[in-house]
Structures are given as structure tokens and as C-alpha cells.
Design a protein that fits this description.
With about 240 residues, this protein is α/β, with parallel strands linked by helices. It is built from 9 helices and 10 strands. The longest helix has 24 residues. The mean pLDDT is about 90.
Length: about 240
């Protein structure tokens, strides 16, 4: 394509794009269709090692102790935009392999939600390609997974029960109170600032005071958001403020 043709093409494409955006804003049905066409469902076990190490060594023990002090016998975790359960099962593995032994009688309850209903089946199958599990510590991989050709399936005894709900976080949140919420690589990457504010407010409402919110390593909470204090800044971990 000559330079001149190329500029003309870009002008045409941008005009079409602007028209399409106007159409989108007036057509909820088209939004829904577009949603189904461009989901980004990439996830990995132990994605961002430093975050999961902080969770294992500091956050989870601290949240569990706080829960026990408040008379709770279980910790409630919500993985929002859970993809195929990689994040939820990583928390379950940290619990089963590292922490459970120090907190006898205590339980971990995990809810995973995603816009895509197909994720429920993937979570219950719990079988993953190597690319999904390659960041896991070697020992955990050998202990908790069975290799079947090129697929790695969680052994039944490590398949912690994960409740799955199909849910669009823009419009609905679970009806419960959580001690730990993981909302990574979704709201604070893809949503408009206005929507980020309203979703953050909704997340805050379903958390216990002092509970932890973990967002993606390359994400930030929107400016002037209320109700959260920074807990582990570099890892993008926040704590629900007790009063605000
Ligand atoms: C990039 S993946 C992130 C997965 C995981 N949280 C992580 O960080 O590894 C984004 C997930 O959010 C889901 N998703 C997209 N829009 C959503 C919405 N409006 N409500 C709930 N989930 C959504 C996608 O289906 C996908 O599984």
C-alpha cells in the first residue's frame, strides 16, 4: 500500500470506529455481542510469584489470625474474573501445602466468579496445559498434579472445593462478606475509570473491615477511591479500612 493510500485507509477506519462507538453506546445488545467476542482469559497458577509469596508468608496467616480472633472458623476468599480457576486453586494449594497444618480445625472457603459460564466446567475438571502451571514451585507441581501426556490435572486430594458462579462484575457481586478478594487483570485494566470506581465501591461492600484486596501487579486503584488503605504497596495489596 502506498503512503497516501495508507493515510486514507486510516482516516476511513477511524471514522468507522467513531461511528461504531456511537452505535455501541446506544445499543446494549451490541455491547453484549462484543463482550462475547473478545474475552481475555489468560491466567496462570502462581502468576506474580512475589504476590503469592506475600500471601503465603504474611497476608493469609495474618487474615486467618484476625478471623480466629473474631470468632470465625473459616476464611472466605473471592476470586473475581477467575478464568479457569488458576488463581483460586493457587490459594487452595498454599492453604493445603503450607498453612493448613498450623491452623487445625480452620477452613478455607473459595468462591470464583467469571462472566464466562464455560469456566465452571474447566474449574471442576482442573486440568491445565504446562504453560498454566509452569511458575508453580517444582515440589508443589509434583506433589499436587498428575501428568497425563501434556496435561496436568490436580490430584483429587488437592482439588479443594471451589464454588463457581457465572457473574458479570459490572452489575453483580456475591452476597457474602469476604476476608480476601482477588480482582486481578480485569477491572483495573479493561474498565473505564467511572466503572472502576463503582465496582471498587461494590467490592468494598462485600469485604470484612481489615480484609485484603489484591489487584494486578501492573494495576492501580482509581484516584480518590475511598475505603481502602495500602497494605503491601509494591504488590498492589490493599486493606479495607475499618472506618471511612
Ligand atoms: C485476563 S483474565 C484474568 C484472570 C485472573 N484473574 C488472573 O489475573 O490471572 C480476565 C477474566 O475476567 C473475565 N471477565 C471479563 N469480563 C468480566 C466481567 N465483566 N465480569 C466478570 N468476569 C469477567 C474473563 O472471562 C477472564 O476469565
Amino acid at each position: 500500500m502506498k503512503d497516501y493510500d495508507c493515510v486514507q485507509f486510516l482516516q476511513w477506519a477511524l471514522e468507522e470506529l467513531a461511528d461504531y462507538r456511537t452505535y455501541l453506546e446506544a445499543s446494549p445488545g451490541e455491547w453484549r455481542m462484543l463482550d462475547t467476542l473478545c474475552p481475555v482469559t489468560i491466567s496462570r497458577f502462581y502468576r506474580d510469584k512475589a504476590v503469592f509469596t506475600a500471601l503465603e508468608q504474611q497476608l493469609l496467616p495474618s487474615l486467618i489470625r484476625k478471623a480466629i480472633d473474631h470468632g470465625q472458623n473459616k476464611l472466605k476468599v473471592w476470586s473475581a474474573g477467575c478464568a479457569s480457576g488458576e488463581e483460586a486453586y493457587t490459594i487452595a494449594l498454599i492453604w493445603k501445602l503450607q498453612l493448613q497444618q498450623y491452623f487445625p480445625g480452620f477452613q478455607l472457603e473459595i468462591l470464583a466468579t467469571d462472566l464466562d459460564p464455560a469456566m465452571g466446567k474447566r474449574i471442576s475438571e482442573a486440568c491445565y496445559p504446562y504453560s498454566s502451571i509452569r511458575y508453580l514451585p517444582e515440589r508443589w507441581l509434583h506433589q499436587a498434579f498428575l501428568r497425563q501426556h501434556n496435561i496436568y490435572c490436580l490430584k483429587p486430594e488437592y482439588k479443594h472445593p471451589i464454588m463457581f458462579h457465572t457473574q458479570d462484575i459490572r452489575y453483580n457481586q456475591p452476597v457474602d462478606l469476604f476476608d480476601l478478594v482477588l480482582c486481578r487483570n480485569l477491572v483495573f485494566t479493561y474498565f473505564s475509570t467511572k466503572l472502576q470506581h463503582s465496582v471498587t465501591e461494590q467490592i468494598n461492600k462485600v469485604m470484612h473491615p481489615g480484609g485484603a484486596l489484591v489487584i494486578g501487579c501492573h494495576e492501580t486503584l482509581p484516584e480518590n477511591v475511598r475505603g481502602f488503605d495500602v497494605w503491601y504497596g509494591p504488590h498492589r495489596i490493599y486493606r479495607k479500612a475499618a472506618y471511612w
